[in-house]
Specification:
Number of strands: 10
Number of helices: 6
Order of helices and strands: EHEEEEEEHHHEEEHH
Helix content: 25-40%
Structural class: alpha+beta
Strand content: 15-25%
Radius of gyration: 24 Å
Shape: globular
Length: 248
């Protein structure tokens, strides 16, 4: 299934996909679950204003997308999302499920508590110490611990498409590019020749469609002349500096 919904008031820095560390991934997933559990239902993707959230929940694809006018962020969302009519109230309720865990509000609340504790104390305590200090006789807490542990070892599969006219700096920071990985030490960019859209990104991430290929950028004659001119000027400046030092 495919669900789209406006982010509205939840358009915070984390909800817009600005992730910097592993805990940010857990935080945004928990925020999305909270958002889904309060859904009145999905909206028409065609008429939605940006930014908006898109969830793909099928047997082969479980991903979240955050779509903005100049950016599309995507990462793993390892849950089965579905709606079900409540037998008592007759109202449609949204469910977020991981294996045998149907995430309820208490389970989500406990997961957020674990997140807060781990964020505050992970430099001093191991996750096992933090988890063992919880009320282990509470079934919802045990499910929250399982859920949190699963998110800690999940591959985030993070990728971000940027159209960035403000930050563009030639080939080092292309106007259109993919940002792969969110931890600074392992982050890198892949430049694109043109702007792309959500449909193309979904196609690239779909294992059942034809693969995309990377073509190294081929500079024009003018760009090559400019590059060589800059390099020549730098070499000349370096040689002049060395001569000046020798004279001293």
């Amino acid at each position: 299934m495919r669900y789209a919904h406006s982010l509205g008031s939840m358009s915070s820095a984390k909800m817009e996909g600005k992730l910097k560390k592993p805990l940010d991934y857990i935080n945004i997933v928990l925020q999305i679950i909270e958002h889904l559990l309060s859904w009145s239902g999905p909206e028409n993707e065609v008429s939605l204003k940006m930014p908006y959230l898109l969830i793909e929940s099928t047997k082969k694809i479980q991903r979240a997308y955050i779509i903005k006018s100049d950016q599309i962020v995507s990462f793993a969302f390892p849950f089965h999302v579905y709606d079900k009519v409540d037998g008592v109230t007759g109202q449609c309720e949204w469910h977020v499920r991981y294996k045998d865990i149907d995430v309820s509000t208490p389970i989500l609340s406990n997961s957020r508590g674990l997140y807060s504790d781990y964020e505050a104390y992970h430099d001093k305590k191991s996750y096992r110490e933090i988890a063992s200090a919880q009320n282990l006789s509470d079934t919802d807490m045990l499910k929250a611990i399982r859920l949190f542990e699963m998110l800690m070892i999940t591959e985030p599969a993070y990728i971000r498409y940027d159209y960035d006219p403000k930050g563009a700096k030639g080939l080092k920071h292309p106007l259109c590019h993919f940002d792969c990985n969110f931890i600074n030490e392992y982050h890198y960019k892949i430049g694109l020749h043109n702007r792309i859209n959500l449909t193309q990104i979904e196609d690239m991430l779909d294992k059942d469609t034809n693969s995309w290929f990377i073509a190294k950028y081929k500079e024009s004659v003018q760009e090559k002349k400019k590059r060589l001119k800059i390099r020549f000027a730098k070499n000349k400046k370096s040689k002049d500096t060395m001569k000046h030092k020798k004279r001293k």
